[in-house]
């Protein structure tokens, strides 16, 4: 009976599988009833001119084509005796559960993307404000920082401080004091608190006095002096540099002071820099200090970064340290973070930095052990960044997850070499999944590889896939593509 039912299943997709199977079971019901009657003259079963072995192959292929398979034949077998209704209900229930999981995952993805966009927008406004401060465009700076403060993100306290700074530079003393008061009230534990209080003292001292244009020239002179100290006596300048970093100077002057500290070989200057990297100043200066320790630091500085990473709970700080590890060549520390970090975003960041370093063997070991789909995607991206076509080819052929396989195929297209083009053609010929075939076509299109696309099109028997290839060829400015299109028209 089951063999008779299987011989009638001729579908290319299981999207409507439940309905089809239910109908087949209904058709089979008379035969089931007949089997329960007393034995009599045997009846001949209808014979279809169709090879069952071929049928099973088509069925397996159709399972790959379906976005959501209702159930495999192995799962179907125990249900055959329960009738069409039970089979249909269980199939629908599984489909609903899968749809619910898909909706939840999509919702999480949308929320994460929204947060990423907001964070990027906040950073953009903040950078615009800092740039305006460096150019002495105080009104524009205040406006940019006001936008950041209204977003109430991670930089809101810093934005209020610099807004007050810009207001004071314009002679808006009362407004500056109001902004400082709002910042202290709203962010009583801000790391800008000490500088805000120092700025408040400065504003009250200058209250009632006109803006002094010479103050800007004074800062320019300080910048020149710092540049001179950098080349002559950096050790003697450390106390003065600390004073600038703790005071109410502009972002540009503070960054220059920090740079001079980073250039110094003295233990005292290094201790100040490490202290700031640990969080002994504002978040902006902390990020710069971490960057400078990665660029200019020695083994002790890199060890200090490792200690800060282990003790910090700030994701942004840890992300900056991972980037500093890449700059300083700390492959082992990045590998440790990629393996043991609990935060998936930070694991992904460590993976990205390993890709930039071209750590092929390390990335492959990580891929084999990693369980997170998102982190595996990052590893594939890192393999692309590092130019590891060998592993990408292997994964494009052997990875069991279709989504990861498609990403590997896409990245092969982005690498753009004869070796990857040949591998893509092999994958197209061997793989039965239409989505993978489409990914190969897109990858070859990205490579502008009309020769391979035409060769595939000539062999392709599936009309839908052939249309896909022709559509891509029609967008390519290639004589090979044009000749093939003319050949089609001439038939």
Could you characterize what this model shows?
76% of the residues lie in helices and 0% in strands. The longest helix has 52 residues. The protein has 491 residues and is mostly helical. Among the domains are: 104 residues, no CATH class; 90 residues, Serine Threonine Protein Phosphatase 5, Tetratricopeptide repeat; 104 residues, Leucine-rich Repeat Variant (Alpha Horseshoe), CATH 1.25.10.10.
Features:
Leucine-rich Repeat Variant, 491 residues, 76% helix, mainly alpha, Serine Threonine Protein Phosphatase 5, Tetratricopeptide repeat, disordered N terminus
Task: Give a summary of the structure in a few sentences.
With 491 residues, the chain is an all-alpha fold. It has helices spanning 2-6, 17-36, 52-65, 73-76, 83-134, 138-151, 156-169, 173-186, 193-206, 214-231, 238-246, 251-263, 267-280, 283-296, 299-311, 315-327, 331-340, 344-357, 360-369, 373-385, 389-398, 402-415, 418-430, 434-446, 450-459, 463-473, 479-490.
Helicity, as a percent range: over 70%
Gyration radius from CA atoms, angstroms: 33 Å
Find the count of extended strands (DSSP E, 2+ residues).
Answer: 0
The major pleated sheet works out as: none
Measured between the Cα atoms of the first and last residue, the distance is: 48 Å
Helix and strand arrangement:
Elements: H1 2-6, H2 17-36, H3 52-65, H4 73-76, H5 83-134, H6 138-151, H7 156-169, H8 173-186, H9 193-206, H10 214-231, H11 238-246, H12 251-263, H13 267-280, H14 283-296, H15 299-311, H16 315-327, H17 331-340, H18 344-357, H19 360-369, H20 373-385, H21 389-398, H22 402-415, H23 418-430, H24 434-446, H25 450-459, H26 463-473, H27 479-490
Helix pairs in contact: 2-5, 5-6, 6-7, 7-8, 7-9, 8-9, 10-12, 11-12, 12-14, 13-14, 13-15, 14-16, 15-16, 16-18, 17-18, 18-20, 19-20, 20-22, 21-22, 21-23, 22-24, 23-24, 24-26, 25-26
């Amino acid at each position: 009976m089951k063999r008779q039912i299987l011989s009638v299943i001729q579908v290319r997709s299981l999207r409507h599988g439940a309905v089809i199977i239910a109908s087949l079971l209904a058709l089979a019901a008379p035969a089931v009833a007949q089997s329960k009657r007393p034995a009599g003259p045997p009846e001949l079963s209808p014979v279809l001119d169709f090879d069952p072995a071929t049928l099973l192959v088509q069925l397996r292929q159709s399972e790959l084509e379906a976005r959501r398979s209702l159930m495999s034949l192995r799962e179907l077998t125990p249900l055959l005796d329960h009738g069409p209704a039970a089979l249909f209900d269980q199939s629908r229930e599984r489909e609903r559960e899968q749809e619910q999981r898909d909706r939840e995952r999509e919702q999480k993805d949308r929320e994460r993307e929204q947060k990423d966009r907001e964070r990027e927008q906040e950073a953009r406004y903040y950078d615009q404000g800092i740039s305006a401060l460096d150019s002495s465009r105080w009104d524009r700076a205040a406006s940019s920082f006001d936008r950041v403060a209204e977003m109430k993100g991670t930089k809101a306290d810093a934005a209020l401080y610099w807004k007050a700074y810009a207001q004071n530079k314009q002679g808006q003393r009362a407004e500056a004091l109001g902004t400082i008061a709002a910042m202290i009230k709203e962010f009583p534990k801000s790391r800008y608190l000490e500088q805000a209080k120092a700025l408040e003292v400065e504003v009250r001292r200058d209250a009632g006095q006109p803006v002094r244009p010479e103050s800007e020239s004074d800062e320019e002179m300080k910048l020149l002096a710092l540049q001179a100290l950098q080349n002559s006596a950096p050790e003697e300048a450390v106390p003065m540099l600390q004073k600038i970093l703790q005071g109410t100077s502009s972002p540009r002057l503070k960054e220059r002071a920090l740079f001079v500290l980073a250039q110094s070989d003295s233990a005292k200057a290094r201790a100040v820099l490490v202290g700031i990297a640990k969080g002994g100043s504002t978040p902006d200066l902390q990020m710069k200090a971490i960057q400078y320790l990665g660029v200019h630091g020695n083994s002790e500085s890199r060890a200090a970064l490792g200690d800060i990473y282990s003790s910090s709970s700030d994701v942004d700080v840890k992300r900056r340290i991972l980037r500093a590890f890449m700059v300083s060549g700390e492959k082992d520390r990045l590998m440790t973070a990629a393996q043991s970090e609990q935060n998936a975003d930070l694991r992904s960041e460590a993976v990205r930095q390993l890709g930039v370093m071209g750590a092929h063997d390390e990335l492959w070991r990580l891929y084999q052990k990693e369980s997170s789909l998102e982190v595996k995607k990052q590893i594939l991206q890192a393999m692309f960044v590092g130019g590891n076509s060998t592993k990408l080819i292997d994964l494009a052929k052997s990875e069991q997850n279709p989504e990861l396989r498609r990403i590997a195929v896409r990245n092969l297209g982005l690498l753009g070499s004869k070796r990857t083009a040949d591998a893509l053609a092999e994958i197209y010929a061997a793989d039965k999944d239409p989505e993978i075939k489409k990914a190969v076509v897109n990858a070859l299109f990205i490579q502008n590889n009309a020769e391979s696309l035409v060769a595939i099109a000539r062999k392709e028997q599936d009309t839908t896939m052939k249309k896909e290839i022709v559509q891509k060829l029609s967008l390519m400015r290639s004589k090979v593509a044009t000749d093939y299109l003319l050949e089609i028209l001439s038939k």
